[in-house]
């Protein structure tokens, strides 16, 4: 606990220092037609999250190839925060970073590794796509890390037990700045992409060593992103263009629900999946596939119902 408090103080100092420099050099996220905020807000404060992840992967996990990939990925993401980079360049660097994770952490044949790399890049971008309103990425990531910590501690240890607390400290500090009606700063691509990178790393370990169903620790983000991509493909939209088609964006735009309520609902929905997965795995392992099926069916049904209601309400 004392160590965690010390890490929180360090992360607070770094975040406070970054916000000071960002104000001085005017590193702001300017509102536009697809923004959920109305005033210029400091962007890129997720650099502290990226630093915490780099430290914990290197110092506690000794995953130096992964750290190298994360550093390159973070630099690219921060550059994209300052000025938009070409999609091909971003995807190329993301693929390289995930490939380093797969190469250093698995013994898969190349054909299988390619599939894992593509899935990892998709999950990486899922965190970026869903980082669109106050509190969403930070609170969801905190829940994911706490559940991974529990599974790592009480089910099967797949990573160093010390891997989690520096990043938890960074997320708690970030939420103090971001989980509010008027956010003081945004994580930016550097925060959401680096957080997605860590989730890919940890879930890969659980999938390899424990059970592939642990991918559903990111189930709600994956559901929203996948369904939105399918919808946009069906409507013939250009996938790499900015949009406001996610369910959380529609709830905000159409029903004017407060962003913090939407973020809380997403976290509670994911908590339902995580608790069901953990309880089923520990107490009734044979029922795990059935439980996951019913949970996913329920969530997909609710998702489609809400999207239909929003579409009907918008036309009325």
Overview of the molecule:
The protein has 316 residues and is mainly α. Helix content is 72%, strand content 1%. It contains 12 helices and 2 strands. Strands 1-2 form a two-stranded antiparallel ribbon. The chain starts with a helix and ends with a helix. The model has no long low-confidence stretch (mean pLDDT 94).
Summarize the structure.
The chain has 12 helices and 2 strands. The chain is mainly α.
Break the fold down into its secondary structure elements and pairings:
Elements: H1 2-25, E1 28-29, E2 41-42, H2 47-59, H3 64-82, H4 87-105, H5 110-129, H6 136-154, H7 165-178, H8 188-209, H9 219-234, H10 247-255, H11 259-283, H12 288-315
Antiparallel strand pairs: 1-2
How far apart lie the N and C ends? Answer: 54 Å
**Secondary-structure element order, as H and E?**
HEEHHHHHHHHHHH
The strand order across the widest sheet is: 1-2
Gross geometry: globular
- Tally the structural domains: 1
Task: Summarize the amount of helix as a percent range.
Answer: over 70%
Task: Supply the number of helical segments.
Answer: 12
What is the radius of gyration computed over CA atoms, rounded to a whole number of angstroms?
Answer: 19 Å
What characteristics describe this protein?
single chain, 316 residues, mainly alpha, two-stranded antiparallel ribbon, 12 helices, 72% helix, 1% strand
């Amino acid at each position: 606990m004392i160590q965690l408090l010390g890490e929180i103080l360090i992360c607070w100092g770094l975040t406070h220092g970054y916000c000071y420099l960002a104000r001085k050099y005017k590193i702001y996220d300017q509102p536009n037609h697809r923004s959920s905020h109305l005033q210029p807000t400091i962007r890129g404060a997720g650099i502290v999250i990226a630093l915490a992840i780099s430290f914990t992967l290197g110092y506690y996990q000794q995953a130096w190839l992964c750290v190298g990939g994360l550093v390159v990925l973070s630099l690219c993401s921060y550059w994209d925060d300052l000025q938009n980079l070409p999609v091909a360049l971003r995807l190329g660097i993301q693929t390289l970073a995930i490939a380093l994770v797969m190469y250093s952490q698995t013994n898969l044949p190349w054909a299988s590794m390619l599939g894992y790399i593509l899935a990892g890049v998709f999950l990486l971008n899922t965190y970026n796509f869903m980082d669109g309103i106050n509190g969403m990425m930070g609170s969801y990531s905190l829940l994911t890390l706490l559940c991974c910590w529990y599974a790592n501690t009480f089910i099967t240890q797949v990573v160093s037990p010390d891997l989690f607390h520096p990043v938890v400290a960074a997320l708690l500090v970030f939420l103090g700045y971001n989980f509010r009606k008027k956010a003081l700063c945004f994580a930016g691509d550097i925060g959401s992409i680096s957080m997605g990178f860590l989730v890919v790393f940890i879930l890969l370990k659980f999938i390899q060593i424990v059970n592939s169903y642990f991918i559903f620790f990111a189930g709600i983000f994956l559901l929203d992103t996948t369904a939105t991509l399918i919808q946009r493909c069906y409507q013939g939209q250009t996938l790499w263009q900015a949009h406001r088609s996610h369910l959380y964006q529609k709830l905000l735009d159409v029903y004017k629900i407060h962003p913090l309520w939407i973020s809380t609902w997403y976290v509670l929905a994911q908590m339902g999946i995580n608790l069901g997965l953990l309880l089923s795995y520990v107490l009734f392992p044979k029922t795990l596939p059935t439980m996951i099926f019913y949970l996913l069916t329920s969530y997909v049904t609710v998702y489609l119902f809400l999207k239909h209601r929003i579409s009907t309400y918008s036309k009325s």
